[in-house]
């Protein structure tokens, strides 16, 4: 596991306090950045089954971030930036 910065930890907490649910694409991006930012090993991830559509979307979103060679530090920064954008777009309950 990668050490978590204070801004990243705050963004994780803040993401759970949005006043409305983000779009599916935004949720997938959050998921992929979170998995990469926490240092989880994509190569050890189980590929979802044929009828696990939600799992496939999540797997593919994570794969896209990995394929772009996004580092854990870059993923954390992108995650924080995305959560800040979502707080503006969807409202935030402090």
Question: What can you tell me about this protein's structure?
Answer:
With 94 residues, the chain is mainly α. The protein has 4 helices and no strands. Helix 1 runs parallel beside helix 4, helix 2 crosses helix 3 and helix 2 packs antiparallel against helix 4. The mean pLDDT is 95.
* N-to-C span: 28 Å
Helix fraction bin: 55-70%
Label the structural class. mainly alpha
Shape: globular
β-strand number: 0
What is the residue-averaged pLDDT? 95
Features:
94 residues, mainly alpha
List the helices and strands and how they pair.
Blueprint: H1 6-15, H2 24-37, H3 53-67, H4 72-90
Helix pairs in contact: 1-4, 2-3, 2-4
Pfam family, one: ACBP
Protein name: ACB domain-containing protein
Family: Belongs to the ACBP family.
Summarize the structure.
The protein is mostly helical.
């Amino acid at each position: 596991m990668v050490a978590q910065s204070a801004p990243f930890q705050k963004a994780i907490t803040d993401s759970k306090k949005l006043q409305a649910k983000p779009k599916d694409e935004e949720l997938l991006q959050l998921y992929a950045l979170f998995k990469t930012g926490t240092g989880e090993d994509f190569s050890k991830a189980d590929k979802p089954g044929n009828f696990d559509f939600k799992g496939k979307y999540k797997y593919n979103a994570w794969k896209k971030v990995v394929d772009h060679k996004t580092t854990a530090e870059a993923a954390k920064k992108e995650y924080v930036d995305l959560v800040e954008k979502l707080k503006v777009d969807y409202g935030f309950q402090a």
